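User: Please fill in residues for this 230-position structure.
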């Protein structure tokens, strides 16, 4: 479902004399339907960069990033928007929403964008908010004023509203209490069971061990400085 072949990435620092910093070379990754793969490696190794390239935010220098039928590395903006609507979900660490949109709507939006009838989309949103212990009195308020943990749970509810065939998870259990952490792990297990291909960053080692089928250390894709043997 997600296939990465010979992917390379460098950053050009335009404000620093256009210095070119190579950050990834020859990256390979295959994630089958129903599989959850954890990206590991020390801070700065390139985990977030790889996730952002799969999501289509960072351009690849070369290589292939196939998500379903689309090569994200060569895709147009229109194709990436369609991919994000239909196929690829992303639970980022922080919630970014338009102010004044009620929480229930924020969670239902991915389903509404796909043409799901409003009552059905709201029912799914309510179910997720309830499972993630967001009190009902907050559902008609914008989540912009919610606590960090509440915002993270709204973000997770939104990310799991539509059964995307592929999912990117950035620290989905960070800063959650034990009960909510267990709910999130159940949601991930259910997504795997219905065949979602998942790539995630999990600093929570116990969560990683429980939910991930394998780990891929992105350090293997970090370019070696000149003169350093691999
Ligand atoms: N927008 C950017 N511009 C320039 N360099 C960047 C940019 N984003 C990332 N980098 C560089 O790419 C390398 C990989 O960073 P990345 O954030 O992917 O690492 P990470 O493994 O996710 O680290 P952490 O665990 O600390 O989040 C780092 O050297 C970083 O400085």
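Assistant: Residues filled in for all 230 positions:
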């Amino acid at each position: 479902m997600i296939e990465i072949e010979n992917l390379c990435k460098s950053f050009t620092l335009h404000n620093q004399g256009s210095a070119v910093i190579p950050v990834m070379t020859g990256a390979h990754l295959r994630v089958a339907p129903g599989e959850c793969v954890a990206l590991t490696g020390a801070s700065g190794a390139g985990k977030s960069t790889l996730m952002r390239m799969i999501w289509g935010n960072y351009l690849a220098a070369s290589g292939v990033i196939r998500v379903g039928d689309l090569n994200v590395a060569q895709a147009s903006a229109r194709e990436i928007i369609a991919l994000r609507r239909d196929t690829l979900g992303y639970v980022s660490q922080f919630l970014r929403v338009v102010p004044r949109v009620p929480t229930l709507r924020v969670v239902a939006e991915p389903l509404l964008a796909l043409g799901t009838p409003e009552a059905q989309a709201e029912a799914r949103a309510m179910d997720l908010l309830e499972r993630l212990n967001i009190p009902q009195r907050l559902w008609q308020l914008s989540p912009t004023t919610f606590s960090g943990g509440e915002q993270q749970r709204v973000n997770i509810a939104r990310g799991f509203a539509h059964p995307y065939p592929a999912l990117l998870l950035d620290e989905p259990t960070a800063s959650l209490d034990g009960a909510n952490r267990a709910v999130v792990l159940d949601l991930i297990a259910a997504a795997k069971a219905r065949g979602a291909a998942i790539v995630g960053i999990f600093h929570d080692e116990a969560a990683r061990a429980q939910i991930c089928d394998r780990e891929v250390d992105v350090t293997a894709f970090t370019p070696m400085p000149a003169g350093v043997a691999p």
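For context: The domain at 2-221 is CATH 3.40.50.300 (Rossmann fold).
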